[in-house]
C-alpha cells in the first residue's frame, strides 16, 4: 500500500478536584495490579482514548507495504493494537520531521494529507476520516477509529490564509502556531492574530505546543475556542522546553484549554509512574477538564516502560485508578475533554461564519509583534 523506500526509524521503550461535584462512582485506590488492570479495561470500553498526537502517516511513508487492519509490526500503531488499547480517536500529525523551515512545507504537508487519506481509504473496516465531533461519535458507534487530521506546522500556510482555507477543505483540523514568520518569542504578529481568528472561523484548533510563552498567552486570550497543547507536560516536574510552567497551565485551564500529556520518556520520564505524576500535576494546576493524553507513537520518540505502543493505555489507566482518580475524571481524561474541545470548535465556527467573511489579510513578511 505504500511505495517509498526509506528505512523507518524504530522507537524504543525505557525502562479530588474541588471544582467537581461529589462523584458517587469515585474509585478507591486499587490494591492489586490485576484488579486495577481489569477495571481499566472496563472503563476504557465505555470511555475510549482520544489520542492527541500520532506520527503514523510519516512512519508509513517509509514502508514498502503494510496492513494496519491485519497488524503491522514495523510501527507502534495498528488497528488490533488500537482495539486492545481502547483507542477511539487519533490525531494524525502532519508535522515535518526535517523542520518547519523546509522550503517545501506546503507541498510536503499536502503530500502527507494525501497519504493520510489513502491510508484511511485502504482500511475502511478500522479507520474513518472525521471532521466534526459528531462524526467522531458516529465512527465510534460503527466500531471505527476516528482519524482527525492535524496538527500541521504553521509553516504549511506559507503566510497565506488562502492556503489555510484549502488545507481545511482537505480535512486539516489542528494547526501548530510555530515555525512561521508570524509567531515567535515575542508572540503573534498582527497577521498571526488574524490566523487565529481565521482558524476559529473555520473550526481549526490552535495547538501551542512548543510555542513561546508570549504566543501561548496571546493565543489563549484571543481564541474564541479552547486552545490545545498536543504535546506538553508539566515543566515543574521535568524542565523540557515543550513542557508548560504552572502559570501557563493555570491560564490554559482558566480558558478551558487542553494540555495533552505526551507518553515520551524525554518529556515525562522513563516509567508509567512518571507519566501519572505529570497527569496528577496538570490535573491539580489546570483542572480535570483540561488534561488529556498524547501517545506520540510513531514519532521517533522513546516511550516509558510498559507504554511501548498503542495497546498499552490500560496500564496507564490502571496506575491512575490506584492513585484514586475517579471514573468521572478518567472519562474526561481519555475522551470527554477532547469531545468538548471539538464541539466548541464546531459551534464557534458555525457562529463565526454567519458574522464574518473569509479574511483577506496578507503578511508582508516578518513584522513586529502586536503588544495588545
Automatic annotation (TrEMBL):
Region (Disordered): 1-28, 353-372
PROSITE patterns found in the cross-reference section: RENAL_DIPEPTIDASE_2
Listed InterPro entries: Metal_Hydrolase, Pept_M19
Coiled-coil parts of chain: none
GO molecular function per UniProt: metallodipeptidase activity
Pfam families referenced in this protein's UniProt entry, alphabetically: Peptidase_M19 (PF01244)
Gene Ontology biological process: proteolysis
Name listed for the protein in its UniProt record: Membrane dipeptidase
